[in-house]
């Protein structure tokens, strides 16, 4: 069988009748007029649909002369429902699931990396399971190309986050503060072995905090209030410099330019204002559009090429070994 278009393949199985001892001058075969090939009512195949059974009278030329043969082709088309349910739909859903990381905050490194690795491992399991019953052919089938395309998108999602993490996320969320900037706020001392909670007045604790950090004084008298963070400890979310062209930014990302990265770190410390908090990377914004659009276009071309533009059944000359066996 020719399995390059598997599982959207069409197979043509020939049945050839002829003589290997008498030439066409001595013996000639012809099909009867009408329905020369009949099938048992209700006969079905588990994996194929019988599309037709064309027949013809033919002659085959060999060194001994020309020989009359009868040929009928059983044209079969494979059922794709099983593969759609077990392979194609799960792969599409897994690829779509990997895009969820574009909407996850870039500070959640473990969440985004874990989601990407999970999708890659799931695709690996589906790929191994789908090929265990196939013959070991030397070429790639249509199913293999689809799995490779899904692998590419899942791995590209991980690489996209690597670029976001390297160029638009600096540190762990806060700008480091020197030791001189630590404040010691002392309150009444207390016995560490026994802590008595009073409902009338809260006990003062020895607390040590950073100047300008977002810390709620939960052990103060009165209603609960939170201090507003100062500008010096603004969360370090950075965006790519607008003065640098986009193509240069991509080039610096691919080459790992340290000078550009240090410039980004300096810009992170100078960025202020509420717009800097919880900002979204422009790389993620672009990926939210680019990944789904390109995946849809590739899927459209894939199904158009393998289903809508599939080759029609053609007569093929059988090899000499088949004729000699008859």
Automatic annotation (TrEMBL):
Domain Neurotransmitter-gated ion-channel ligand-binding, chain residue ranges per copy: 1-80
Mind listing the UniProt keywords for this protein, alphabetically? Cell membrane, Chloride, Chloride channel, Disulfide bond, Glycoprotein, Ion channel, Ion transport, Ligand-gated ion channel, Membrane, Postsynaptic cell membrane, Receptor, Signal, Synapse, Transmembrane, Transmembrane helix, Transport
Pfam families noted in UniProt? Neur_chan_LBD (PF02931), Neur_chan_memb (PF02932)
How would you describe this protein's topology in the membrane?
A: Multi-pass membrane protein
UniProt cross-references to InterPro entries, sorted A to Z: GABAA/Glycine_rcpt, GABAAa_rcpt, Neur_chan_lig-bd, Neur_chan_lig-bd_sf, Neur_channel, Neuro-gated_channel_TM_sf, Neuro_actylchol_rec, Neurotrans-gated_channel_TM
Q: Name one GO molecular function term.
A: chloride channel activity
Keyword Nucleotide-binding annotated: no
TM region(s), chain numbering: 82-104, 145-167, 289-309
Compartments in which it is found:
Postsynaptic cell membrane
Cross-referenced Gene3D superfamilies: Neurotransmitter-gated ion-channel ligand-binding domain, Neurotransmitter-gated ion-channel transmembrane domain
- Give the top-rank taxon of the lineage listed in the UniProt record for this protein: Eukaryota
Q: Which residues form the Neurotransmitter-gated ion-channel transmembrane domain?
A: 87-168
One Gene Ontology CC term in the entry:
chloride channel complex
Alphabetical list of PANTHER family matching this protein: NEUROTRANSMITTER GATED ION CHANNEL
Protein's recorded name: Neurotransmitter-gated ion-channel transmembrane domain-containing protein
Which species is this UniProt entry from? Cloeon dipterum
Q: Where is the organism placed in the taxonomic lineage, from the top?
A: Eukaryota, Metazoa, Ecdysozoa, Arthropoda, Hexapoda
């Amino acid at each position: 069988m020719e399995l390059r278009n598997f599982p959207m393949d069409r197979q043509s199985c020939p049945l050839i009748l002829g003589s290997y001892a008498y030439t066409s001058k001595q013996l000639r075969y012809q099909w009867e007029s009408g329905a020369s090939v009949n099938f048992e009512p209700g006969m079905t195949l588990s994996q194929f649909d019988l599309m037709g059974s064309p027949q013809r009278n033919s002659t085959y030329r060999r060194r001994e002369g020309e020989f009359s043969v009868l040929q009928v082709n059983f044209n079969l088309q494979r059922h794709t429902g099983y593969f759609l349910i077990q392979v194609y739909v799960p792969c599409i859903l897994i690829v779509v699931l990997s895009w969820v990381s574009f909407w996850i905050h870039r500070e959640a490194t473990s969440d985004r990396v874990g989601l990407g690795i999970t999708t890659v491992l799931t695709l690996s399991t589906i790929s191994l399971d789908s090929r265990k019953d196939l013959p070991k052919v030397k070429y790639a089938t249509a199913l293999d190309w689809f799995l490779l395309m899904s692998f590419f998108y899942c791995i590209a999602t991980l690489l996209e986050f690597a670029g976001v993490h390297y160029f638009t996320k600096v540190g762990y969320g806060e700008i480091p503060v020197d030791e001189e900037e630590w404040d010691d706020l002392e309150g009444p001392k207390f016995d560490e072995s026994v802590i008595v909670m009073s409902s009338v007045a809260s006990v003062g604790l020895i607390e040590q905090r950073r100047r300008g950090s977002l810390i709620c004084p939960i052990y103060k008298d009165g209603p609960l209030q939170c201090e507003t963070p100062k500008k010096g400890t603004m969360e370090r979310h950075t965006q790519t410099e607008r003065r640098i062209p986009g193509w240069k930014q991509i080039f610096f990302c691919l080459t790992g330019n340290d000078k550009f990265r240090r410039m980004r770190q300096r810009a992170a410390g100078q960025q202020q204002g509420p717009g800097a908090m919880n900002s979204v990377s422009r790389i993620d914004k672009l990926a939210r559009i680019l990944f789904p659009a390109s995946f849809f276009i590739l899927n459209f071309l894939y199904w158009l090429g393998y289903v809508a533009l599939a080759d029609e059944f053609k007569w093929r000359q059988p090899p000499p070994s088949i004729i000699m066996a008859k």
